[in-house]
Design brief:
Order of helices and strands of chain A: EHEHEHEHEEHEH
Distance between the termini of chain A: 11 Å
Low-confidence stretches of chain A: none
Oligomer: homodimer
Largest sheet of chain A: 5 strands, parallel
Number of helices of chain A: 6
Strand order of the largest sheet of chain A: 2-1-3-4-7
Shape of chain A: globular
Number of strands of chain A: 7
Chain lengths: ~200, ~200
Amino acid sequence: MATPSVYLAGPDVFLPDPRAKAAAMQAICRKHGLLGRFPLDADLDLAGLRKNEQGLAICRANERLIRECDGVLANLTPFRGPSADVGTAFEVGFARALGKRIVGYTEVDAKYRERVIAHFGKTSMRRRDDGVLQDPAGMSVEDFDLVDNLMLDGAVIQSGGAVIRPADVGEPGVSVFEWAVRTLARLLEQGVRHGKR
Amino acid sequence: MATPSVYLAGPDVFLPDPRAKAAAMQAICRKHGLLGRFPLDADLDLAGLRKNEQGLAICRANERLIRECDGVLANLTPFRGPSADVGTAFEVGFARALGKRIVGYTEVDAKYRERVIAHFGKTSMRRRDDGVLQDPAGMSVEDFDLVDNLMLDGAVIQSGGAVIRPADVGEPGVSVFEWAVRTLARLLEQGVRHGKR
């Protein structure tokens, strides 16, 4: 049986040394029998392309990588605000429509509602007459006891996966990323046993 | 020929009166020969469900709505940070994987890089030795002359669509939303002529 491959979605591509992070994540994937594919793996030749054409070429390469993978590990740690990185959210949606198995993970335990309140500050929030909580712009705050927007949690859970927070890690000394890898590895193995791949 | 239907993705569902906004958007869609479908249209019975089960049920209904539609109009106006709403980003990814036509729009002219700098404040930004701009967390800032994360712009453009900013509206008195509707209506009409639907 071929080694299942998983796409490593997340804002890790924006780290000062994304390739070092990718290598570390790929080593953990290997340990659990998975081939980790990182967005920068495509190694595109962007020379001579205008800025926006470079962006479109990277987009095409990432879409292709996701199509080729059996599953997606999505880093949903809040990025530049109370929610996940939008590029990662896009990729979760893309993978979900293709029926891929998805496991999300985040370095933050607080759920979405709590994070929005912390982001704006408790005293900046308002409550409508019907009890709905609103941010300072008057936009209501989701109240579904989920880690992020319901489309993200919903798609991950309904793909058979889970969104792993630090509090969910069931073994001391194991990182939330490694716990997510183990969860996805088991999920993909079950898929094989049930003939779902 | 059946009226093409388009899914109205965006953080408009969080407005104080989302149904009023939906009705206004749907009227503009009708004017241009499109049937606008709003996330809340499914009118789910959520009574008796736990909070997280409600979220998952709404997620399933929205995924179904997107599958049923011919195209997606995505409100990419920044939401609780410098980027678009992650639920909308998810839906753009979902639609893209299904090969739907997508047109994005935003109420803000500034592109992503400029918005990130404004979000953190110019003096909080750092520049690496190789010239790459970093936010205060040390995360590099995309430099692709695009409206948001390259996956969003890339997918919209490569679906045949465009991301419409106020500056792109070619007729006085027309809203950015209506311009986006017109753009998508033409795109879907061309798809029919070319037998692509």
